[in-house]
TrEMBL record, chain A:
<dbReference type="InterPro" id="IPR009056">
    <property type="entry name" value="Cyt_c-like_dom"/>
</dbReference>
<feature type="domain" description="Cytochrome c">
    <location>
        <begin position="64"/>
        <end position="142"/>
    </location>
</feature>
<protein>
    <submittedName>
        <fullName>Cytochrome c</fullName>
    </submittedName>
</protein>
<dbReference type="GO" id="GO:0046872">
    <property type="term" value="F:metal ion binding"/>
</dbReference>
<feature type="compositionally biased region" description="Basic and acidic residues">
    <location>
        <begin position="153"/>
        <end position="163"/>
    </location>
</feature>
<dbReference type="Pfam" id="PF13442">
    <property type="entry name" value="Cytochrome_CBB3"/>
</dbReference>
<dbReference type="InterPro" id="IPR036909">
    <property type="entry name" value="Cyt_c-like_dom_sf"/>
</dbReference>
<dbReference type="GO" id="GO:0020037">
    <property type="term" value="F:heme binding"/>
</dbReference>
<dbReference type="GO" id="GO:0009055">
    <property type="term" value="F:electron transfer activity"/>
</dbReference>
<keyword id="KW-0349">Heme</keyword>
<feature type="region of interest" description="Disordered">
    <location>
        <begin position="149"/>
        <end position="187"/>
    </location>
</feature>
<keyword id="KW-0479">Metal-binding</keyword>
<keyword id="KW-0408">Iron</keyword>
Length: 187, 338
């Protein structure tokens, strides 16, 4: 009886030791498959490749990928046009209003192929895996609901609520109206 | 019989294998720099004094264990002679302790003072610690004399070289045991460390503050050389990258510039100006790549580029899909950048 209790206790204590998996290396065939998204003809919304679901949507739910995305966001100069999410030359992400849709494929396509009104394409500057990581992170910035995964905290001063707090988008109730006809419906 | 002999040999080998760490190009006991020499002297002094104290304490303890029981049994009530002797021993021990601690305090104060070497030459190097490599910027007297490199610091022998230390992402710590003590690299703050090598040679250093997955593979090399050799090195580092000398190398340059490589790496004299990864202008002339992971050869460059995540899992260079031909030419190109 006592042995049973002790082993149950040990099992309960070690159950918390499971750690999130970090996928550090994506096999080239997997990376190639991840690149083949299907988009609607207007370039807004669509479906990620099947392998994305087979991998259990790693770029939306995995804290390591989100952290890598956060690093890439400053490494590749997104801050220059989108600031910390508040926007500038490019639109804001913090308000949760997406001109090209909130789905991760739309964001992936915006980064990879660029968008007509001034968003450059990053196809030749980043690998497919990195674009996915970045898309996952950018989606987090404008999310409406809390995710269980969040990137690491900033060392420097925060210019907005940290990603691991409640979604910043909740603070905004009114979004901008798109000025260009091909930017899709108001969400 | 056999086993006892083996055990004897093993026991004899144990201390020697432990002591084997005391020499070599990354050892505080092989001190060749002014700061490291004062640290070593302090260390030796403390170890010697503490060993003597330890031996004395153990000797007194053994003596007490030996005769304690008969003393207690024989005496009825306190014996004034023994009492006086005990008091004298206690006073002597307390005095000795105070003196030893005072000596240690004073000596370590002066050692710490000696570490901040007075008088800098005009050679200043900015060291940026980041996961998991060292970015180096040699600041010259004029802007066109500054240049970038990575993971390999060259310094002239017998001169005080000032390092400005900055952490880019998390806290790192720079430690070149043969030349100086440790100094942290903290984000948002600038620390300084002065390096001075008394003898030419290669001194290995390492990050000594845990900084993530590849902390153990974040080494750097300090190469101390005579003034003329150093000046020559500095002049060649300031140069732009050499132009491709044959068709394969030219093809490699094309691959480098058209692929994501150029977004992260700079090669001066080309359109590659990325700053997220090490400057590769003279990568072929450095002894190691990836912060001490592999010796620089064309083969190791190809191995690294084809699969950085297997060689150094978690590092921040992604695997860029290249064809066999592209890989061959790009590694030829990088190896040619002496
Ligand atoms: Cu470290």
């Amino acid at each position: 009886m006592r042995i049973l209790l002790v082993s149950l206790g040990v099992a309960a204590a070690t159950a918390g030791c499971q750690r999130e998996e970090r996928q550090l290396r994506v096999d080239p065939p997997v990376a190639a498959a991840l690149d083949s998204i299907t988009l609607m003809p207007n370039g807004i919304s669509g479906a990620p490749p099947e392998i994305y679901f087979a991998l259990d949507r790693p770029y939306e739910t995995n804290a390591y990928n989100l952290s890598q995305g956060k690093r890439l966001y400053s490494w590749f100069g997104c801050k220059g046009c989108h600031a910390d999410g508040q926007g500038g030359a490019g639109p804001a992400f913090l308000d949760g209003w997406w001109n090209y849709g909130p789905e991760i494929v739309s964001i992936f396509a915006s980064i990879r192929d660029g968008r007509p009104h001034g968003m450059p394409a990053f196809r030749d500057k980043m690998t497919t895996e990195q674009i996915w990581q970045l898309a996952g992170y950018v989606q987090t910035i404008g999310a409406y609901s809390i995710k269980t995964a969040a990137p690491g905290r900033n060392d420097e001063k925060q210019t907005r609520p940290a990603e691991n707090r409640g979604p910043a988008a909740k603070r905004f109730d009114e979004g901008p109206t798109p000025i260009h006809l091909d930017q899709g419906p108001v969400p | 019989m056999r086993t006892r002999a083996t055990r004897g040999v093993l026991l004899a080998l144990l201390p020697s294998s432990v002591l084997a760490g005391c020499t070599g190009w990354q050892s505080a006991f092989d001190a060749q720099g002014a700061s490291a020499i004062s640290i070593k002297q302090l260390m030796v002094l403390m170890v010697v004094i503490c060993s003597v104290v330890w031996a004395l304490v153990i000797a007194v303890l053994i003596r007490a264990l030996w005769r304690g029981r008969e003393q207690v049994e024989r005496s009825i009530g306190p014996d004034p002679v023994i009492e006086r002797r005990t008091a004298r021993v206690v006073v002597a021990a307390v005095t000795a302790t105070v003196i030893v601690l005072a000596v240690f305090t004073v000596v370590s104060f002066f050692t710490t003072r000696a570490l901040t070497l007075a008088g800098h030459d005009d050679l200043t190097i900015k060291v940026r610690g980041q996961q998991w490599w060292w970015g180096l910027e040699y600041l010259g007297p004029t802007p066109d004399e500054r240049f970038e490199t990575a993971n390999e610091i060259h310094i002239p022998v017998g001169r005080n070289v000032r390092l400005q230390l900055e952490g880019i992402d998390v806290i790192h710590s720079l430690w070149v045991p043969g030349l100086a003590g440790k100094q942290d690299l903290i984000p948002g703050r600038r620390n300084e460390l002065t390096l001075r090598a008394e003898r030419p040679g290669a001194y290995r250093g390492q990050c000594s503050e845990f900084c993530g997955l590849q902390h153990a593979h974040m080494a750097l090399l300090v190469i101390a050389e005579q003034q003329e050799t150093f000046d020559q090195w500095m002049r060649s580092q300031r140069e732009r990258a050499t132009d491709p000398s044959d068709a394969e190398i030219a093809a490699g340059q094309q691959v480098f510039l058209s692929r994501p490589c150029a977004a992260c790496h700079a090669i001066r004299g080309t359109s590659a100006t990325g700053t997220n990864g090490p400057d590769l202008t003279h990568v072929g002339g450095r002894r190691y790549i990836a912060a001490g992971l592999l010796e620089t050869t064309r083969g190791s460059l190809a191995a690294w580029i084809s699969d950085p995540q297997t060689l150094k899992p978690g590092n921040n260079m992604p695997m860029v899909a290249l064809s066999a031909d592209e890989l061959r030419s790009v590694s030829a190109y990088l190896a040619s950048l002496k």
